[in-house]
């Protein structure tokens, strides 16, 4: 997990998980082992900030997905002729993700398409053969990265009814984080998968309020899982999908309570999206996400804090300082905002000193020592002489004019 400087309080999570199913309501029987377990976790911010006093980032249950690394083909197909390397398909061409057919399916034309909801029978094992995941009917949306990448990528290659063995590098499973307590860090997993069903995903316009909220929350939770794994690109992908669900048009009327809950989920997604974008130094995108939050909730402390951080990262200290002051006013005891604000005030003062010195050099006054004082003295003497010269010239001009007029008369 990316350790983050924005260490958020775990004592007051934004909401409690109501469930961990991976699918639509009718598929709730599919145990959500490859998605979120329901455990609360925190999405952390920057490595150099202490956010222990900042209200928790919009968090949610930690994803549980089977996954891991390479197991040798010969060890992965008990009772099969798996030793023949010709039988293994190198899915990515790198040797890090392999697939082998154990039971043939109904033909290539029966393969599922991205965007469909698929249901699979799953069994996940470590290299020593111990089973860490087993589900008779796991359902997820293909191509949305709702489950481990190894599973998401390989199921697209399965034929209906096909049973296959998949071995994957940790990179496409739980990575260096592992999954406590049963999947150690960097552990190889072998997945035995059978494709049971594939059907079109439900029409977003026809989802009722409860279904839409549940779907958006599952996508958001998946984004939180990827954030914890420090995979900010996939986190952004999941948050974007959640926002797309929330923003989709609907032919169903929602109650005021459902509308309010959808707005709450949207704000959480945007806040977490900004955190992910900030991790990738996508400052303009992060600023836009923060501004969208503040349009709905002008007093959202996390959005104010991150907006201040984004502006500070861009060197806009003058704009960042009042924003952090606004956040501090809402949360006066927040030590993290205090620390960040103090740091920015110092940086701003240093920046102004540098600018002052630069202007001084541009005006031909490179130092603040004796030379400027001399110039000042010289200037203070030169001004009266100039005025005296001007007054004399005017007086002489007046005399000359008088003489001319007198001569003409």
TrEMBL record:
Q: Which domain of life is it from?
A: Eukaryota
A matching Pfam family:
FKBP_C
Q: For the PPIase FKBP-type domain, which residue ranges apply?
A: 115-199
Kindly list the residue ranges recorded as spanning the membrane.
385-407
What this protein catalyses is:
[protein]-peptidylproline (omega=180) = [protein]-peptidylproline (omega=0)
Residue spans of biased composition, Low complexity class: 1-12
GO MF annotations, alphabetized: peptidyl-prolyl cis-trans isomerase activity; protein folding chaperone
GO cellular component terms? cytosol; endomembrane system; membrane; mitochondrial envelope
Q: Which UniProt keywords apply?
A: Isomerase, Membrane, Repeat, Rotamase, TPR repeat, Transmembrane, Transmembrane helix
- Please give the residue ranges the record annotates as the region Disordered: 1-86
Q: What is this protein called?
A: peptidylprolyl isomerase
Q: Which organism is it from?
A: Casuarius casuarius (Southern cassowary)
């Amino acid at each position: 997990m990316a350790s983050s400087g924005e260490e958020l309080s775990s004592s007051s999570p934004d909401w409690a998980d109501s469930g961990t199913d991976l699918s639509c309501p009718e598929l709730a029987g599919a145990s959500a082992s490859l998605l979120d377990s329901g455990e609360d976790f925190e999405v952390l911010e920057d490595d150099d900030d202490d956010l222990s006093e900042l209200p928790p980032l919009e968090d949610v249950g930690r994803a549980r997905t089977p996954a891991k690394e390479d197991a040798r083909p010969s060890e992965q197909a008990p009772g099969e002729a798996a030793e023949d390397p010709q039988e293994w398909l190198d899915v990515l061409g790198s040797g890090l993700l392999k697939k082998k057919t154990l039971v043939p399916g109904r033909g290539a034309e029966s393969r599922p398409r991205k965007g469909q909801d698929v249901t699979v029978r799953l069994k996940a094992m470590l290299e020593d053969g111990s089973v860490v995941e087993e589900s008779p009917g796991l359902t997820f949306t293909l191509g949305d990265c709702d489950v481990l990448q190894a599973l998401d990528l390989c199921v697209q290659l399965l034929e209906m009814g096909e049973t296959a063995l998949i071995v994957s590098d940790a990179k496409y499973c739980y990575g260096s984080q592992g999954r406590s307590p049963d999947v150690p860090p960097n552990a190889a997993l072998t997945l035995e998968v059978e494709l049971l069903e594939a059907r079109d995903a439900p029409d977003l316009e026809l989802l009722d309020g409860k279904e839409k909220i549940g779907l958006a929350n599952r996508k958001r939770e998946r984004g939180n899982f990827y954030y914890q794994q420090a995979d900010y690109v996939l986190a952004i992908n999941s948050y974007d999908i959640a926002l797309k669900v929330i923003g989709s048009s609907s032919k169903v009327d929602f109650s005021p309570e459902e509308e309010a809950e959808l707005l709450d989920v949207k704000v959480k997604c945007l806040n977490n999206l900004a955190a992910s974008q900030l991790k990738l130094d996508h400052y303009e995108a992060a600023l836009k996400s923060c501004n969208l939050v503040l349009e709905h909730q002008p007093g959202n402390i996390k959005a104010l804090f991150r907006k201040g951080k984004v502006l500070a990262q861009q060197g806009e200290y003058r704009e960042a300082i009042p924003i952090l002051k606004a956040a501090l006013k809402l949360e006066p005891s927040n030590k993290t905002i205090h620390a960040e604000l103090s740091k920015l005030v110092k940086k701003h003062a240093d920046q102004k000193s540098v600018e002052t010195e630069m202007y001084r050099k541009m005006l031909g006054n490179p130092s603040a020592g004796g030379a400027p004082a001399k110039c000042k003295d010289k200037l203070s003497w030169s001004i009266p002489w100039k005025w005296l010269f001007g007054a004399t010239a005017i007086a002489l001009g007046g005399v000359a004019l008088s003489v001319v007029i007198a001569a003409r008369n």
